[in-house]
Design brief:
Blueprint lengths: L10 E6 L2 E10 L2 E4 L12 E5 L14 E9 L14 E5 L28 E2 L23 E4 L2 E8 L10 E4 L4 H8 L2
Antiparallel strand pairs: 1-2, 1-4, 2-3, 3-6, 4-5, 5-6, 7-8, 8-9, 9-10
């Protein structure tokens, strides 16, 4: 099964000191959406995103396709203990993305929209295939902080799951429940 619409073109690798931490998605010319547990506010100064490529070089500086993070906003209701409730964050970039055939923004649902039922959904990323595994070097299906999309609309953000993925149900943050919050911060 090949990638569809914008699912892989909106995908980014959120990195700290050039090391992949989590997946994320481009939602606007200066904005990225990810899980709150992926954001370390105290380390924004060493945060970058890698975009516009399916291949990453983990823990190595990459020329081009990288952009510095300006600021990160974690949902104030985020609870890191006992289930990662409200596990959502937006990240502002220092410069705008240059959209082209390899870089596009994903669409967001309206506030309170119901996720499609019995539709093909896609989740892509470079995450760990198993506990204590290593980051994939080529874009795969599954990643913490990554976007779950249906026809190019992002309905979920991967919060947590047991590894290997798909052995037990994963837990996702419902983007439609936070659409107004995203808009209030980003203007999108």
């Amino acid at each position: 099964m090949g990638f569809r619409i914008n699912e892989d073109k909106a995908k980014v690798s959120l990195r700290y000191n050039d090391c992949h931490e989590c997946g994320a998605s481009i939602i606007g010319d200066r904005w990225v959406l990810t899980a709150a547990h992926c954001v370390f506010i105290d380390f924004v100064n060493v945060s970058t995103v890698l975009y516009g490529t399916r291949d990453i070089q983990n823990c190595q500086a990459v020329r081009g396709h990288t952009m510095k993070v300006k600021k990160a906003y974690v949902n104030t209701e985020y609870q890191p203990y006992g289930g990662y409730f409200n596990d959502i964050a937006v990240v502002e970039m220092e410069e705008p993305f240059e959209f082209n055939e390899n870089v596009k923004a994903v669409e967001l649902p309206k506030q309170g929209a119901i996720s499609p039922i019995l539709e093909d959904a896609l989740l892509v990323g470079w995450g760990y295939p198993y506990v204590n595994g290593t980051v994939a070097t080529t874009l795969q299906k599954g990643d913490s902080g990554g976007a779950l999309t249906v026809d190019g609309v992002q309905y979920g953000i991967v919060s947590w799951s047991d590894k290997p993925c798909a052995t037990t149900p994963g837990v996702l943050t419902r983007v439609a429940s936070f659409r107004n919050w995203i808009g209030n911060i980003t203007g999108i």
